[in-house]
Design brief:
Length: about 120
């Protein structure tokens, strides 16, 4: 992953730990993985209660092949089953922001630290 890299300490400071992620997965259908040649090449994860796309990452060697689009589509479908408007946060200057905008995410709101919140409405 070349963008949005964070250390375990940085993630823990945001409340994202192995235990918190495991609890999310145990509680709800909230994570999807993409596999190629028996290896995980990407994943997406949601916070279904909050209506948020929590994470979506694809290994650099597998970008541009539709993997990320498919992972985000699965996450969106699950979120739209519960929410009319869903959201995510990402770095404003990241390639990810452009990727999400290409998928129809918009209504950008600056949230500080160079990050933005994007939203998408149920089709």
């Amino acid at each position: 992953m070349s963008e949005n890299a964070a250390s375990r300490a940085e993630l823990a400071a945001m409340g994202i730990t192995e235990a918190s992620v495991a609890a999310m997965i145990a509680t709800d259908r909230c994570a999807w993985v993409a596999v190629a040649d028996e290896a995980i090449i990407g994943f997406s994860m949601i916070d279904a209660e909050e209506g948020a796309l929590f994470a979506a990452f694809v290994l650099p060697g597998h970008e541009g092949l539709g993997v990320g689009r498919r992972l985000v589509a699965e996450a969106e479908a699950q979120l739209f089953a519960r929410h009319a408007v869903i959201w995510l946060e990402t770095a404003q200057a990241s390639r990810a922001a452009g990727f999400y905008r290409h998928l129809g995410w918009g209504n950008a709101q600056e949230i500080g630290g160079g990050d933005i919140r994007l939203e998408k409405r149920r089709p």
